[in-house]
Request: fold
Amino acid sequence: MNTTPALSMQGLRKSYGNFEALRGIDLEVQRGEIFGFLGPNGAGKTTAIRCMLDLIRPTGGTIRVLGINPQADPVAVRARVGYLPGELRLDDNLTAEGALRYFSALRGNNVDWGFVRQLAERLDLDLKRQVKNFSKGNKQKVGVIQALMHRPELLLLDEPTGGLDPLVQQEVLRLIREAQAGGATVFFSSHILSEVQEVAARVAIIRRGEIVEVADTATLINRAFRRVLVRFTRPTDGSALANVPGVTVLSQDETTVQLQVEGEINLLIKALATYDVADFDTERPSLEEIFLAYYEADRVEAR
Amino acid sequence: MLTIFRYSLARFRGQIIGWGLGIFLLGLFLLPFYETIVEQQDQFQELLENYPPAMMAFFGDLSEMATPHGYLGAEYFALMPVILGIFAVLAGSGLLVSDEEKGTLDLILAHPISRTALFAGRVLAFVAATILMFFVGWLGLVLPTLWVNFDASWGEIALPFVSLLGVILVFGTMALLLSMVLPSRGLAAMLSGILVVLSYFITSLARIDDRLGALARLSPLNYYQSGDAMLGLNGSWLVGLLAVAALFTLAAWWLFQRRDIRVAGEGGWRLALPRRRAAAT
Reply:
């Protein structure tokens, strides 16, 4: 079994004049995993992916895709990768089938056409229609099919569910999971955190061209703050709980207090022992909230 | 590369039919008038003598209007470099950058195809499209010779097209090169178009003003034979034009190898000057 990482970037930098789009990215994605690449628009997600395919040349650093340097042998990388660009544009004069046959020809016609039809059926795409008559969602379906149709070892998907309706989004996520089950590695960028949370085992958060966090999705959620709702048996002033390290009082009324706890919850439980607690409810944050917390921190730093 | 060539040539289909049909009909329309010109040679010469020399300069040697090469040179081939220069400039400037600006190049280059193969496929498709267009134009000139008394063989009629091919390839590859250097396809097409027209004026005016002779030597049209090619092709001129086109192509290829592929909507006024190849290892 090949143990080299599916993707490896060390100190990857990309500048456009004075603007630094990537500021030294270090990242490793293991084979067979689904990896989420999170960040808002302009954070550097697309730039990193385009470096992996040698569409743009890094200013510095090292990059390996399936063990290959994409600058030295871009064709070898592209032969084993399926790519869905974030801003998908297709030749309007072709039918969906025409576009896919063209992409298949560019791959040396090593595409199982039965599989293409199966994908089109699952995504509810009419292959006979002209691309120019397609909605954004239908064009995106063509993009998804062309990325998957040659059963690549590595899928680089830039915002794969953009423009799709919720049902088709779910189908695309299923296809991603199936590709992984078939042995593929999936690296996909998104700013829709719920879908990343749904399929990705690990995530990286990119902010202004820098990786600020790489972790298992579950660990990231567990490690981060949690919300706690405490109900007292009688009217109580819970504001003193703000003195507990890591605890912030979000809101309170006569008998309830809503708290945010960062880190261990043990100290809060000990502090609550001195109160008459009727009920205690804790809620894990969504990936979305964690993600926003990083950007909130960024805004605070900027002030 | 073959896939890129076939697909690109198919995309030229409309232009081959459009431009080809245009010059086909022009030939079909013009050639039958040759007999009239021959019959009324004396009156025609008289008329020409009254034309200002500056105007005559743009049509070449009109004293030979009653010969096949003189007639086709003045009536058909004199303006062809400018007319088809527009095609060359539009096609050359858009050969790669048009897809880049539309955002479709990203996906094409994400497939297992090298930049060299893409570049070669596109350039060869442009050359093939030009040749096909000329073939359609040539048909428009040779078909009327079946019923018009025109003293030139079909092979001789093809020779000015060969000379024209050299010029058109220079214009097309110049536009391609400029599209690699300038920030947008529109700018590359505009600048190339200006150069085509300038070339035409300088070459034409140099016929009546010797002071422009030195400058005219830099103009590709100076080495275009027009109808005179029917008397014998100037091999060195043709090779020279093809060599310049090859040089422009090579320079454009070199730049294309080293530049970032832009995504749709990207671009600015910063010149994409050649840089050191990326530092990543």
In short: Chain B has a mean pLDDT of 87. DSSP finds 14 helices and no strands in chain B. The radius of gyration of chain B is 21 Å.
